[in-house]
Amino acid sequence: MKRYPLIAVPAATAALLLSACSGTTATSGANATASASSAQVAATKQLKIAIVLSGPITDHDFNEVGYDAVKSVGAKLGAKVAYAENVTDANAQRTIRNFAQQGYNLIFTHSFSFGDATLAVAKDYPKTVFMSGTAVQNAANVGTYDNPDYQGAYLAGMLAAGAGKSGTIGWVSAMPIPNLLANLHAYEAGAKDINPKEKVLHSFIGSFYDPPKAKEAALAQIQAGAQVLSAQTVGTIDGAIAGKALAIGALTDQNFLGPKNVLTSVTWDLSPLVGDVAKSVRNGTWTNKAYSYGIAKDAIGLASFHGLKNRVPASVLAKVKAKMAAIRSGAFTVPHDTSTVK
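Above: the chain's sequence. Below: its structure in token form.
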């Protein structure tokens, strides 16, 4: 486990944290089921924020987004900040409880599979605020937040269909959980917005972090005719490079992983949401609602094309720009479909 240098880490706590993450199906934060009235949160001058992560903070993906958001917000607000990375589901409850015992008054549990662990600890610490990422339900002192990158996935699907010439594109991800299913369906819808006959291949590798499996899945899709892939898990871009295909990165600007292959990336900036939640805890105005910050709040966007824009027809780029503006204004709503797929 790693923490910020100013924070002492008990050896027993460090020993709890292993690697990898497995999960169970949950609904997205946007559709979380409210189970209780919101707790009364007292204002505080000593804000202490912790985040529990299922993978490494250097994954250039989901975990790094959470880590960067808490780190930047903590610095801006003068809050004490800590984190735990590579936490397994089996150790999630003990890790979350450790932060609560140390007096952290705002704890982000940044994995949908930490939902049950969060609820269990929250019962014992009613004055602590917990934010459960893409969780199934809340509690009096537990709020939820989602990753509405399905909005960006729609745009990615448009770009992929426009950049590809074979009529087949691909999508590689981790687990068939609701927020990723929403991403897949939106990607497909965006692709068919450009080409109604576009074929969209998809793969779930069965793990949140297994780069070799993701690379293998990507290569299989390329062999099946996919010329552009949506890289929803680490390792997909490696497959795109090996298979001489284009890729669209996820959550962070991933062009540096393949400068000649990563067309653009759907980015997720969690700091606006973390900032608003942290301020509400500090001010005593927090409520246990489901938080969802998308394109309209500048949380979801598209990264630079890094010189690869000419791989997409100008007409498609114009349509993508117009669609993004429509999503931002509310004139167009990306369908939020979490139905299962074969």
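DSSP finds ten helices and twelve strands in the chain.
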